[in-house]
Amino acid sequence: MLQAGGAGAFACQRLTCVLAALSVATIANAQQNPAAAAARQWRTAHESAILAEFMDLLAIPNLARDVPNIRKNAAAVSGLLEKRGVKTRLLEVPGAPPVVFGSIDSPGATRTLVFYAHYDGQPLDPKEWATPPWEPVVRDGRIYARSASDDKAPIMALGAALDALKAVRITLHSNIKFVFEGEEEAGSPHLASILEKYKDLLSGDVWLICDGPVHQSRRQQIVFGARGITELDITVYGPKHELHSGHYGNWAPNPAMMLARLLASMKDDEGRVTIDRFYDGIEPLSETERRAVAEAPDVDRDLMRELWLGSTEGGGKKLVELLNLPSLNIRGMSSARTGAQASNVVPATATATIDIRLVKGIDHDTAAARVIAHIRKQGYYVVDSEPDAETRMAHAKVARVVIEPGGYDAARTSMDLPISQLVLRTAESARGPVVKLPTMGGSVPLYMIDAILHAPTITVPIVNHDNNQHSFDENLRIENLWDGIELLAALLAM
Amino acid sequence: MLQAGGAGAFACQRLTCVLAALSVATIANAQQNPAAAAARQWRTAHESAILAEFMDLLAIPNLARDVPNIRKNAAAVSGLLEKRGVKTRLLEVPGAPPVVFGSIDSPGATRTLVFYAHYDGQPLDPKEWATPPWEPVVRDGRIYARSASDDKAPIMALGAALDALKAVRITLHSNIKFVFEGEEEAGSPHLASILEKYKDLLSGDVWLICDGPVHQSRRQQIVFGARGITELDITVYGPKHELHSGHYGNWAPNPAMMLARLLASMKDDEGRVTIDRFYDGIEPLSETERRAVAEAPDVDRDLMRELWLGSTEGGGKKLVELLNLPSLNIRGMSSARTGAQASNVVPATATATIDIRLVKGIDHDTAAARVIAHIRKQGYYVVDSEPDAETRMAHAKVARVVIEPGGYDAARTSMDLPISQLVLRTAESARGPVVKLPTMGGSVPLYMIDAILHAPTITVPIVNHDNNQHSFDENLRIENLWDGIELLAALLAM
Prior knowledge:
With 494 residues, chain A is an alpha/beta fold. Chain A has 2 domains: 15-226 and 410-492, Zn peptidases (Aminopeptidase, 3-Layer(aba) Sandwich); 228-285 and 297-403, 2-Layer Sandwich (Alpha-Beta Plaits). Helix content of chain A is 34%, strand content 19%. The first copy, chain A, is built from 16 helices and 20 strands. A 6-stranded mixed beta sheet of chain A has the order 1-2-6-3-7-19, with helices on both faces. In chain A, strands 12-14-10-16-15 form a 5-stranded mixed beta sheet, with helices on one face. In chain A, α3 (34-58) packs across α16. The radius of gyration of chain A is 25 Å and the shape is globular. Chains A and B meet through β10, β11, α7, α8 and α10 of A and β10, β11, α7, α8 and α10 of B.
């Protein structure tokens, strides 16, 4: 908790003071939003220091399951806040990386803003990276490192924004809380119990989720929901062990072909999911939300060029429209070996991992159950553990389906709420016209915040879309860090 | 070349001598064939020595590409023949493991029998093996080692058969040649040029191919052809690099789903290949061949139990019938990662390796061209090297199809030829009623022998069908080695 009037604290000052502190040249280019203008001023003078501090943070390996290192990250993130006079504590439940909590009390404030981010990163294979994932480097205006974008960037941007606001002594009108999670990429398995345990501490009028990328046009976007998710591993079975393909091929069922047929049965030519009732129950968009989607820039052509695509799925629908539908994606597929490693066998098993992204109105249990019902409809006997010889001989087709723990539902905050309108106005005064989306494509466990804390969530992303998050060579476009500092300064001060 | 009358050589003796050499008890159980009876007599008295010699041969790593070790194998195989008085030489062409050649001239012989086998083994991953592949061990009546079955077993069995025939001084009625290849599992890339170069040396009235397994009923089988083969790697392309499945899933085409749909389009529910003209041109079976297939024992139920299968492909056709049709098999399939290694991405590519087994009447180039035409018919632009950005953007679907070198055609010798009938009579006199197959399921490059040497080929397998050849834990059932010595002794003496 930051004490008003403490050393270097946020003293009560007015807009005029801020403007006076800026040079005439800066004022001419400044945004209408004084906090954003102050952030630009500060950043321009401290770029090297900001980058140096950020690279130190990125150099700490941050897989949620790597206990010693994840705690080092928590300590570093706490330190980053405390350096700015924010009082912090670690919120703990057994078996989980700590949540780094920080707070600033603002005298006279009538609302509380909670800024959420996460400091853990996606699992990775270092062999796939051009440079080591935890040895951050700058190349071509980008920082390359695991979590450079997802999701340490907002943590650094909030720190720099606090510096900027302090430097020009801007008044905060809201109480501020920071909630930095340490196992989001592991599916936030303990977040619900942390929210329950620290319910009062974590309450607020709105949770501002600092995660995900800005729009592909590089324009700021504000997002009012996130899709839910469920993930399934599907294994189908051929012969007990690999067989010579000459002696047994086209007599012994080939599990790779079985899996191909099963997966192919799940979508039509245009990419529409053909699983029964897959789209049933979708909560329709409001008038405001429909308008926002229609107004979102069409970047599909540019993206296709960037990604070397000659076509897209979705029957001609734009990407921004498709995000308001549930999706079914194959994450990976494996059976025996391919290419130079292949041998002339009928494989013994074939496995696919799929994810289903969910929108409001379809819960994750229902979605997983629909997939399993579809697999049964294709003639499979479905089991959830390794099938024995008797089971495999008793059924023409056997599939093992494991629903990964950690699935969750979608969340969506109405764009018509007063707090939604305030966030939009503030963001536009800082960053110009913003793209407004009812839902982001990715999944963050926003539903918990609604369910446990009854607080609306609004996502305020800052990183570039082309950041390779969740893959190798993750990176942050440094310009996005600069823009993000301005946006977050404005939101801190709103 | 073995000299008649030399030390321990095959002196002219008659059936009566052989019978006199056998005890009364042995005679009661002996086969009608005196050479087979002599082989059993010899083997019973020398089991340990035969196994010890075989295990030494199996202990030499035998991948065709492992030049120093493959030459050690060639030397060991030559030594095995020379120890039996067979004159040997190494047949060489640049870049190839040598063919070990051996010959026995039999005075007065009016025919020449060529015994073919190969001493190299399938590539492997030692991590998959219960015990190291080149440290042979005996467990439960089987020898476990790479090439225990495929294809060092016939080499050892021929050696032991020669010992047995010499011991009872049986007359050989035929000139004998041995041709032991060193790169069959690499697709015999130099065999054609070796056959051309040593055309006269390698001529014969019949090539007896000692490769492949006996019937699944464990009855001896004699096979009059082998299927041809062609192998293709198919890679389909999604986005330039992996993408976040939430932000881009179901907009960016998923190559794993594309590949699943493509593979699924190649077969119907019953496993019949749906590629246009896939079955066109098949040379029909003769009356004798059809009768042989009809008479072959039906082991499908037993095999299903052994392999834990609840169903088979082929629309109700027996395995033995299906071997007379071309087949399409997926050897392996891969795209990004599955299970615990999976991450929430749209993969960038997906690859399948497939093999096509061919029967007489369809050549391997035609078969590969039909697959490629099918891929085009599914809307793919087909390339044979890595497609660049322009190519990928210019086409909705791009597939890279690489036809692996080393494909070849099927071969089939008529069962009605006098030499075919002689082999069948001899085998039945040694081993009782045999299963007669027009074609084996696997592929060996028999077509070359017909094309270059104009010699018919007949396959005389000795190893067990459940030998895990081409996979890990390859093994030979020792009983099959004993039976094989008897069969090969009879054929050597016919």
